[in-house]
Structures are given as C-alpha cells and as structure tokens.
C-alpha cells in the first residue's frame, strides 16, 4: 500500500498557528508559574502575564499616572511585569538608589543615545567619569557663568515685551531660552534660538525626534533596523535625529577649539571641561567623550529646565495670589527704579523658593521610573527580599505626592509648604527632603541641578517682576496635562499664556 503525503496551505497555516500559540501559551505559563517574584505581590493580572503591557503604557506617555494609580490601589509595592516591581516608601530610597546600593542602572539607559555618564551602567566606570566632570558644576564655577545666563534672559525679556498683551506659547520661549543658555555654557556659543536665527529650528526639531527614536530602538531594535531600509526621507530623518544632535555637538566643539584653543579665558563650562581640574590632579575626558557629555547635557536640560519654568508660570497664572506675593517679594527689594536680579540676591527669597520647589514637587521633570536592576543573589528592599536580576524602581510623581509627608492636600499647589511660619525659607523636614526625588538620589543624582535652579529662579523672578501672567483660556489647562516619555511633556506641547506689562 502506497502512502501519499500531501501538504496544503491549510496544513501550513495550522502548523504555524499551533507553534505560535504554543509559544505564547508557554511564555504565559512560564511567567505565571516560574516568575522569581513572590506570587503574593499585588498588581494587575496582565502584569503577571507579560512585560509588554507596561512597555505600551510607557510609549503612550501615561506610565507615571498609571503607576501612581496602582500604588494608590495596591500599596507601597506593586508588580509591573513578571520581573519588575515599583516601590513607594521612604526607607526603600536609599536601598535602591543610595551610595553603596547593590542595585545598578537598568540596561534600558543604554538606549538613550551615545554612552556618557547618564547612560553608563557600571558604577565604577560612572564614578571615574563623574570625577572628571563634577568640578565643572561647582558653585564657584556656576557663579562665573551667571552673566551668560542673564544675557540669555535679557533676550527672552526682549521677545516677551514685543508680544506683551498677546497670547504666547510660554513652553516654546522657555525651551528656547534654556537652549541658548546650554549653547553658551556647553558649546561656547548661543544657538540663536531667541533671535529666530542660527541653527535652533533644525536642532530643536531633531532634539524632539531623538528621544522618540531612542524609545523606538529600546522597544524593538529589530524594527528600528528594519525601518532604516525604507527609502522614505522623513522616516530616515526621524531615525537619524540622535546622530544629528551628537554630530552638532562634535562640530561645535571642533569650532570652539579652532576659535579659542584648549587654554582660553572664554567663560564657558566647555572651557573648564577641556582643562580638567589640575588643582585636584584630575585629567580631562577625551575630546570625543567631552562632545558626548555636552550633547547629553544640552539634550537633558532643554526639556527638563524649560518645562520647569513653564509649569511654574502656569501655576502662577492659576494662583494669582501667589503670583502677587512673589512679585511683591521681588520688587519690594528695589532701590529706586532698580531691582537686583543677581542670583545671589534671589536664591534664598522664601516665596521664590517656595514657588520653585512646589513646582518641582508637583511637576517633576522626570516623573516616572528611574529603573534599576538587583544584582547577585538579590537584596532586601523594605520587608521584601527581591531576587537578583529583578527590575526595581521608584517614581517622583508618587513619592512627592505622598499624603504621609505632604499633607494637607498633596495634589494642591501650595508654596507655603516651603515657607516657615516666620516667613523664612523652609527646606522641609528631613523626610520631605528625602521624598523629593526630582533630582534623583545618591551618586547618580543630577549633576546639573544647581545650574537648573539658577536658570529657573532668575527667569521666574524677572518675568514675574515685569509681567502679569494670565491663562489664555481654559484650553491652557488641557495643554498642560502631564504626560511623560521619561521626561515630563505637556500634553498639548505648548502653554498658552498672556503676559501683560505691570
């Protein structure tokens, strides 16, 4: 008897479907049964089945909000995927992020552009690199840079006065100011963003696309590489946005060296970075390393500092009583027709400090997770032993609105939290200061935080002293709904305000 084997299209489809479904079923069962995380850790069912859901949430820009809601529902420890936990309690901060922590940065950071301090995973390599850069951000160095910052804010004020009484997109103008500051300090020359010229429009376009391109690569390197073969110019420009940003930094640094050399009296942070710190025996980074670091710093600062200035002005427009108090504090120090806007005179003003700090608390520049990975055999985080190789994180959006430390009304804008009953600057309780996660914590905290603070306080003081700030309408509230793509992004990508000279 002869047996005939006949292969049909339906046989092939059934076989492929069986293999695919079988693989999916095995992955689900594996995640449910063999996850190293104890099964009693609460979280949505989907989080036990697949890590893809939290990736999709992150891509949608709603991770911070959703994780915050999960903590409100489930408590201080929440499962986000078969191998990921989110924590929200004060004692866990030092364990995960403090000096000597056995938790290291997640490999996800390697997707954020070229390898600089921010992307470096290895703690020892980060320590060596940070040592060669930290002197650039010392207060005495930043004080020398203040004239450059003031000059950029002069340009901002000029543009705002031209538009007084009309609707302006404050997010745009804040970002352009911070971009020009970054150019002056990091590259030795302004982008010309506030002059409407230079390379600012092209640079900002690529800057906006770069983060999205990095996120796409992190989600699926294979898909990213596949898209690179498609002959669509707009798509290729999008995928190459990060390369444009880094190439610009490299070219600008070469131009700086041609104009000023390595030993220069030019006031810029780039000058300091090129020189190293001879008094401490610290050699500078290599030129390629420096160009990466300055590009990363401009990349980070433009959105984070620009957004902070914007949200502070938005809150002052929503809370005119605090706006009046801030204006009185600033102009009340005037001598005749002259008001001192030097940072030294502004930095400890109680109301300005309160407005700035409360803005950071409610609208942190990086609202959602700063992911870490447990190493070795794992570690004890709070009351839980977390196995090695587990993703763990905390987020500023939840920590900084914890009612245990920020009552009453933790969701309300209230600068009085940071002003003492005697009307003096109040840094907050030790617990409140620890829960303020906006700059990160431990050895990986933000090196540029003092520079950002200087830019924000100078900009806010000068704007509020000269203008009454009002909402352009109810649409502004919709524009300013918080979303996050690692950094804070207003939903409308603009902030419509009206500034009227006072």
TrEMBL record:
Keyword annotations: Heme, Iron, Metal-binding, Monooxygenase, Oxidoreductase
Highest rank taxon of the organism: Eukaryota
InterPro entries: Cyt_P450, Cyt_P450_CS, Cyt_P450_E_grp-I, Cyt_P450_sf, Cytochrome_P450_monoxygenase
GO MF entries: heme binding; iron ion binding; monooxygenase activity; oxidoreductase activity, acting on paired donors, with incorporation or reduction of molecular oxygen
A Pfam family recorded for this sequence: p450
Cofactors demanded by this protein: heme
Residues binding heme: 446
PANTHER family registered for this protein in UniProt: CYTOCHROME P450, CYTOCHROME P450 12A4, MITOCHONDRIAL-RELATED
Family: Belongs to the cytochrome P450 family.
Name of protein: Cytochrome P450
């Amino acid at each position: 008897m002869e047996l005939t084997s006949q292969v049909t299209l339906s046989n092939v489809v059934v076989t492929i479907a069986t293999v695919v479904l079988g693989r999916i079923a095995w992955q689900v069962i594996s995640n449910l049964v063999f996850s190293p995380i104890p099964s009693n850790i609460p979280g949505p069912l989907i989080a036990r089945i697949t890590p893809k859901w939290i990736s999709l949430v992150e891509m949608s820009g709603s991770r911070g909000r959703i994780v915050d809601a999960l903590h409100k529902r489930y408590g201080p420890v929440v499962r986000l995927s078969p191998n990921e936990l989110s924590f929200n309690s004060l004692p866990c901060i030092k364990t995960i992020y403090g000096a000597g922590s056995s938790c290291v940065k997640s490999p996800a950071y390697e997707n954020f552009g070229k390898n600089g301090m921010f992307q470096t995973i290895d703690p020892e390599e980060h320590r060596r690199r940070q040592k060669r850069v930290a002197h650039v951000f010392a207060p005495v160095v930043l004080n020398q840079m203040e004239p450059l910052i003031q000059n950029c804010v002069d340009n901002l004020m000029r543009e705002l006065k031209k538009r007084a009484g009309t609707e302006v997109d404050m997010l745009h103008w804040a970002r352009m100011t911070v971009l020009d500051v970054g150019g002056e300090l990091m590259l030795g020359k302004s982008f010309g963003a506030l002059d409407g010229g230079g390379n600012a429009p092209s640079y900002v376009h690529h800057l906006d696309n770069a983060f999205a391109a990095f996120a796409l690569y992190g989600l699926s390197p294979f898909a990213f590489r596949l898209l690179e073969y498609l002959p669509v110019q707009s798509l290729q420009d999008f995928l190459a946005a990060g390369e444009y940003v880094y190439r610009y930094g490299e070219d600008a640094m070469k131009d700086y060296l041609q104009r000023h050399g390595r030993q220069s009296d030019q006031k810029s942070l780039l000058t300091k970075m090129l020189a190293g710190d001879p008094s401490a025996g610290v050699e500078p980074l290599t030129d390629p390393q420096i160009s990466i670091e300055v590009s990363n710093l401009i990349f980070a600062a433009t959105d984070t500092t620009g957004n902070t200035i914007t949200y502070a002005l938005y809150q002052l427009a929503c809370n005119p009583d605090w706006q009046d108090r801030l204006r009185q504090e600033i102009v009340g120090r005037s001598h005749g027709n002259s008001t001192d806007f030097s940072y030294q005179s502004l930095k400890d003003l109680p109301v300005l400090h309160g407005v700035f700090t409360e803005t950071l608390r409610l609208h942190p520049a990086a609202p959602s997770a700063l992911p870490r990975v447990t190493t070795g055999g794992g570690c004890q985080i709070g009351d839980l032993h977390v196995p090695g190789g587990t993703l763990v994180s905390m987020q500023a959006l939840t920590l900084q609105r914890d009612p245990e430390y920020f009552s009453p009304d933790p969701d309300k804008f209230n600068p009085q939290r940071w002003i003492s009953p005697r009307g003096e600057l109040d840094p907050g309780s030790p617990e409140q200061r620890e829960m303020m996660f906006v700059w990160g914590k431990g050895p990986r905290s933000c090196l540029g935080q003092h520079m950002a603070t200087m830019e924000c306080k100078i900009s806010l003081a000068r704007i509020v002293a000269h203008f009454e700030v009002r909402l352009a309408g109810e649409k502004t509230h919709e524009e300013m709904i918080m979303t996050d793509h690692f950094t804070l992004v207003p939903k409308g990508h603009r902030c419509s305000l009206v500034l009227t000279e006072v």
